[in-house]
Amino acid sequence: MARVLVLGGTDLANAFVTVLRAAHPEFEIVLSLAGRTRNPRLPDCEIRTGGFGGVEGLAAYLREEGISALVDATHPYAAQISANAAKAASETGTPCLHLVRPAWQQAPGDNWHHARNYEEAARRLDALSQTHPLTVFLTVGRQELKPFHDLMNCTPVVRSVERPEEAELPPGARVVLARGPFRQEDETAFLKENEIDVIVSKNSGGTATYGKILAARALRLPVLMVERPPLLEGEVVGDVESALNWVEGGLESSSR
Ligand code: NAP
After folding, report:
1. Whose CA is nearest to atom 37 of ligand 1?
2. 31 lines ligand 1 (CB under 6 A)
3. Which atom of ligand 1 is nearest to the CA of 53?
4. Nearest C-alpha to atom 27 of ligand 1 is from which residue?
């Protein structure tokens, strides 16, 4: 029996599980979540939650659970688990695929500035806000707010599915609770209502969070784009159909 482990925590992972399940009801599919979100949206399959315990823990899991194929469909900025997946798969000889949404590309009208990481983004905001105060929409995720704690002349606006802990928030941050996807019209209203001067964003790719990029383009707002961590070596695809083909090809050839 083919047993596929999908590392998730993304809409893309959920979409992949749904497509794989419909195409191959005979497969056993396990979706793994880090357990950061309290009420995640879940597809219909076996779910496991929590870290594996590094590369060793994941390798042990792959062996013990008899995993035939591993699909890493985590977020492009979840670099640790993707690196762990690649190593554990190589140690155990488990076929491994990274399913990653292609990055957004800058289009005419976009006013993007690039930062290599969150620390650099914070330094750039500090420099920009020397002459006048800025209201900054920090759409980087609550785990990544620490580098923005010492901004002097900025009012941070943080949007999150669940209210972040007080200690996670930059001092003076305004918190807005909401769950995507967010359409361009809603994002335009949000940016105007909150009088946002600049957006700090990850380059997540996909459509679910692209509304803010479209809204920023229309409003001519600058976007400070934090670059993706370097791409992993190994097999990488950008869409669910290609991932399905990979699983089918791999499992067919291994059962021959
Ligand atoms: P990370 O830094 O790459 O991973 C840190 C540790 O969390 C990993 O070493 C692993 O612990 C555990 N972990 C992460 N994803 C896991 C999964 N799917 N199943 C089991 N354990 C997992 O990850 P992160 O950036 O904190 O992201 C955590 C989760 O949130 C991921 O599932 C990711 O897809 C999702 N997410 C992340 C972002 C983002 O911007 N980073 C955005 C949206 C969603 P062990 O070493 O103990 O195995």
Report:
1. 75
2. no
3. 47
4. 78
- As a residue count, the chain comes to 256
- Burial of 185 by CB count in 10 Å (0-12 exposed, 13-18 middle, 19+ buried)? exposed
Name the token pair of 198.
């600049």
Q: Of all protein residues, whose CA lies closest to atom 34 belonging to ligand 1?
A: 74
Does residue 143 have its Cβ closer than 6 Å to ligand 1?
yes
Confidence of residue 170 (pLDDT cuts 50, 70, 90): very high
CA separation for the pair 134, 126 (Å, rounded): 9
What pLDDT is attached to residue 231? 77
173-216 residue pLDDT tens:
999 999 888 999 999 999 999 999 999 999 999 998 999 999 99
Q: Which of 16, 81, 100, 179 to mutate to test the pocket of ligand 1 (most atoms within 8 A of CB)?
A: 81
* 130 CA to centre of ligand 1 in angstroms: 35
Q: Is 32 in the pocket of ligand 1 (CB under 6 A)?
A: yes
**pLDDT tens-digit map of 111-146:** 999 999 999 999 999 999 999 999 999 999 888 999
Q: Which atom of ligand 1 is nearest to the CA of 54?
A: 46
